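Renewal narrative, Specific Aim 1. Our central claim is that a sequence can be written position by position from structural information alone. The example that follows is taken directly from our test logs and has not been curated for this report. It begins with the structure tokens describing the chain, in the order in which they were read.
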């Protein structure tokens, strides 16, 4: 029935698309290029109705649950949280809502983890990554509402914009028509586009995706052993779907090429977006993340008796004879004693902290199967204002994933005279499917390659020799181990937040939750970790079951020998799993802790 409906929509799209666009006053493309009438300056759109979804209501119910613990005999516990990224801050936020007293221990001098940012010598903000907020982020949307900062989201028109590889300087769009419910708005957006796929290629795409809509998450989880490319070929999808759509999706979702990315990731994202009318509508934060997002979280925590400490790196998780956590030992020799302990560290860092007493436990050995994916984020300041769109753009380039002109999209960075492009350079290493290890290349080589790609995509504005728009300055931010690498077969190894240790819980976007390695996943994982702590100290049954550990992991653990934790060596963001501009000190740090990242390839 749905396939038939899509075919009917396709016919409508071919015949009536122009009248749809004019009726709803959407920005138009003239011969594929931005027309003179296009909105080249910042324009925010009203907040979409993200509340009227089942996922939002589930998230809201979980948020309200924490207040029910407040004032009980079990409240008022001290909880030490290692890591001040979104997951650690979210965990602390919901713990204080439940009446507990969290203390967040952040190793660096800035909060945010993978959404951290800092200022350069000119006062310009350098961000670890280009972060976009989607309507289908229910826990994040609840968080903004609870902190009374919803006005800090700059919503853009409900549209996806793609650079045309074969037509330099031109764009094409997926336009979501107001008033058409999901999933038909998504189907119509794709079918209406006349630039990327033929009519019959679009129809061939629908049948393989029907089980996702009809069977839901069980079907989606079963596809984890297949890469995106494998799935396409198994179900006979046209190869051009990969070139036109899935390359852009894979690189945007996990900084990785489709032949390396688990199809479960793509289907999970599509399932969220397809089933919510405004799921794919995007918003930018109106400024830098530390001040506009992390600071309100910190203020909420501290106003209710919690603490957030910067420059407080943990040296060791010290265990008691029974295997529980006795205390945390900081690098400065201080000990932190708490009733409960939570790790909100990235998986690659958590692996370095696993105490010897836990090192042979199957639960912790699951982490051997997980690792972070490298990614590079670029900031490029030009001497003039480029023709741009007030939105996120999918480059569909071999080297670039997504980008935005932040001088157009973000209030704090606004400029009517000069453009600042923020771009995601991916895949940037063989781990992500690339042939070149760009992490090991110099900043100059990365920028030269990027300028070449921009000159190819936008030849009327950018030239490699600098004869057109001139590059004034740039920043290259490497995150050698970012979100977990969602390669085929990894999802089953993501651990539950509840651990076998009676006073220790895990958070982090890499732990088991349904929103993958994302800002939404980080917030949800922190929330679920807080729920585990609250239920445990209250002595009530746990809401969530512990995820089954794979037999292969149990078998390996049975023959493993106990190992002392390696710990984190060195200083700085990269040492603790963050991103940084690569100084000589940072390069030495990376060489000692993760030498494969600096092996020159290509």
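The sequence written for that structure reads:
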């Amino acid at each position: 029935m749905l396939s038939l409906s899509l075919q009917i929509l396709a016919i409508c799209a071919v015949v009536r698309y122009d009248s749809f666009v004019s009726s709803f006053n959407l920005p138009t493309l003239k011969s594929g290029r931005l027309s003179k009438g296009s909105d080249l300056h910042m324009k925010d759109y009203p907040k979409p109705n993200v509340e009227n979804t089942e996922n939002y209501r589930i998230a809201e119910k979980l948020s309200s649950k924490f207040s029910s613990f407040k004032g009980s005999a079990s409240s008022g516990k001290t909880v030490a949280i290692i890591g001040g990224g979104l997951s650690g801050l979210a965990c602390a936020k919901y713990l204080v809502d439940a009446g507990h007293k969290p203390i967040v221990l952040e190793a660096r001098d800035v909060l945010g983890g993978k959404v951290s940012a800092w200022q350069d010598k000119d006062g310009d903000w350098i961000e670890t990554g280009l972060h976009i907020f989607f309507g289908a982020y229910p826990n994040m949307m609840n968080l903004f509402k609870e902190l009374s900062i919803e006005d800090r989201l700059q919503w853009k028109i409900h549209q996806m914009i793609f650079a045309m590889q074969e037509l330099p300087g031109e764009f094409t769009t997926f336009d979501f028509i107001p008033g058409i419910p999901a999933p038909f708005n998504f189907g119509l957006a794709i079918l209406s586009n006349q630039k990327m796929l033929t009519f019959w290629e679009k129809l061939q795409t629908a049948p393989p995706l029907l089980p996702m809509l009809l069977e839901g998450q069980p079907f989606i989880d079963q596809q984890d052993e297949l890469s995106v490319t494998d799935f396409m070929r198994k179900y006979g999808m046209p190869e051009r779907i990969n070139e036109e759509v899935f390359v852009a999706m894979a690189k945007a979702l996990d900084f990785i090429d489709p032949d390396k990315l688990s199809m479960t990731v793509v289907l999970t994202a599509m399932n969220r977006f397809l089933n919510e009318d405004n799921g794919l509508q995007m918003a930018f934060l109106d400024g830098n993340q530390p001040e506009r997002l992390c600071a309100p979280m910190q203020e909420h925590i501290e106003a209710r008796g919690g603490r957030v400490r910067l420059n407080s790196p943990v040296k060791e998780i010290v265990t008691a004879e029974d295997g529980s956590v006795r205390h945390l030992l900081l690098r400065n020799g201080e000990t932190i004693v708490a009733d409960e302990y939570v790790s909100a560290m990235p998986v690659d860092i958590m692996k370095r902290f696993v105490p010897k007493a836990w090192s042979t436990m199957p639960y912790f050995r699951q982490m051997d199967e997980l690792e972070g994916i490298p990614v590079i984020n670029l900031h490029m300041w030009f001497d003039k204002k480029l023709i741009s769109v007030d939105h996120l753009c999918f480059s569909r380039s071999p080297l670039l994933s997504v980008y935005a002109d932040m001088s157009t999209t973000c209030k704090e960075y606004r400029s009517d005279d000069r453009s600042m492009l923020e771009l995601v350079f991916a895949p940037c290493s063989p781990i992500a499917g690339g042939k070149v290890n760009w992490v090991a290349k110099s900043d100059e080589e990365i920028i030269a390659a990027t300028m070449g790609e921009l000159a190819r995509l936008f030849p009327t504005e950018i030239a490699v020799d600098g004869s057109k728009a001139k590059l004034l300055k740039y920043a290259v931010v490497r995150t050698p181990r970012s979100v977990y690498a969602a390669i085929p077969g990894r999802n089953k190894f993501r651990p539950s937040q509840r651990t076998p240790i009676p006073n220790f819980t895990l958070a982090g976007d890499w732990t088991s939750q349904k929103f993958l390695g994302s800002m939404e996943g980080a917030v949800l994982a922190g929330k679920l970790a807080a729920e585990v702590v609250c239920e445990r100290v209250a002595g009530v049954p746990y809401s969530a079951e512990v995820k089954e550990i794979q037999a292969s992991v149990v078998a390996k653990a049975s023959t493993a020998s106990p190992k002392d934790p390696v710990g984190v060596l060195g200083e700085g963001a990269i040492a603790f799993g963050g991103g940084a501009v690569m100084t000589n000190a940072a390069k030495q740090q990376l060489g000692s802790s993760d030498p494969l990242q600096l092996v020159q390839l290509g």
